[in-house]
Amino acid sequence: MATDVLIVGGGGREHALAWKLKQSPSIGKLYIAPGNGGTRLVGENVPIEAIDFENLANFAEEKKISLTVIGPDNPLAEGIVDLFRLRGLRVWGPTKAAAHIEGSKAFAKNLMREAGVPTAEFEIFSNHDDALAYVRELGAPIVIKASGLSLGKGVYVCMTLAEAESALEEIMVQHVFKKSGDEVVIEEYLDGQEISIHALADGKDFVLFPPSQDHKQVGENDTGKNTGGMGAIAPVPWVGAEALKDIETRVVRPTLGALAEHGAPFSGILYPGLKMSSQGPKVLEFNARFGDPECQVYMRLLKTDLLDILEASADGKLAGTKIEWNTGFAVNIVLASGGYPDAYKKGFPVTGIEGADKVPGVVIFHAGIAIQGGNLVTSGGRVLGVSAVGDTLKIALDRAYEAVELINFEGKYFRRDIGAKALAQ
Ligand SMILES: Nc1ncnc2c1ncn2[C@@H]1O[C@H](COP(=O)(O)OP(=O)(O)O)[C@@H](O)[C@H]1O
Ligand SMILES: [Mg+2]
């Protein structure tokens, strides 16, 4: 019997999930709420916002949806999975208690300390004077984080004491992140390259994905402000099987174990961001969902039926599951609006997607793009994800950048060095 699926969310990640689910032999109707201009091409967009749980649950009930897949962090942190389960609706993603590992950096750090998971040395503060004294004692470089969800803007990597003091001022005195800044994590600065790990879990068992690498900073050579992510590659050629095993043993397994012990077994995607430091892997943070753009490259490489493994994860039946991946590499280049991650203008016509889509190995995923009077226009900071696969990382990158050049909109910005470090290594 065909399986009807509802995907919640409307970014590049959700377009990639929809694109992949559409290829499943057992997919029935596919709905995306609210979706975007790209998801409309593979399924039916439903005008309900990702945070409007009641109406999403009503819709799932009414349409007899067999599986609802939650993409973004916010609804998970607010307990959408708990509500769906309460109403007897089958849903994929972590409960509110399990998603707390992303929603509270303070909770995640304490859990890591308790479970012996390698992470930066830290202290947690809720009082500005105490935090300031600690920062002055430790000196720069130092990292200051608002504990709660802050749209990827709550982390200050401070190279000077003055920067650290002004970060504390913004978070704890001006309350720029509101309640998200009530607790502040102050931690040791870590050196090394950053990678993303994704583990698909079902509350008891888990399966690791290949390692991937995002490029967080807006400028080339990793300079400038942090963004939601400017491009990704997978797998990461210098992260071997042994390193991955080490991360599984020292990070993923003990973290999932500790969550279960806390009465919050995790199902869905657990995504630790790691620094590969000279002293081995160290966790920067945990996310409780797919990374975006990482999800886009994973969907390009995944060989196994996505619907099968999401159902197994939702039903607690992952034990013994093998996930198969295509050989070669997948990459993604984010096309952003000029000015992002600061203020930017919207509403510029976007052209050239059709031609770009025809470059061998290329698939374009939509994010901040809308339809206005029948035309595609920019509507967000990250506009499109240009993904490509290839037998080598170099081939995949060349294809993606060829497609990038064919797409145009006013203020189009992208990094020209996605994957460059991995290529040079
Ligand atoms: N201890 C640290 N040392 C060096 N860089 C860090 C450290 N913690 C975070 N960062 C940098 O800041 C970015 C954002 O931090 P992260 O904890 O992932 O928060 P979020 O993704 O919620 O903004 C990371 O991707 C990393 O580049
Ligand atoms: Mg992060």
UniProtKB/TrEMBL annotation:
The keyword Metal-binding applies. Pathway: Purine metabolism; IMP biosynthesis via de novo pathway; N(1)-(5-phospho-D-ribosyl)glycinamide from 5-phospho-alpha-D-ribose 1-diphosphate: step 2/2. It is an enzyme of class 6 (ligase). SUPFAM superfamilies: Glutathione synthetase ATP-binding domain-like, PreATP-grasp domain, Rudiment single hybrid motif. Pfam families: GARS_A, GARS_C, GARS_N. The keyword DNA-binding does not apply. Its cofactor is Mn(2+); Mg(2+). GO terms for biological process: 'de novo' IMP biosynthetic process; purine nucleobase biosynthetic process. It catalyses: 5-phospho-beta-D-ribosylamine + glycine + ATP = N(1)-(5-phospho-beta-D-ribosyl)glycinamide + ADP + phosphate + H(+). Its EC number is 6.3.4.13. This is Phosphoribosylamine--glycine ligase. It comes from Candidatus Kaiserbacteria bacterium GW2011_GWA2_49_19. The gene is purD.
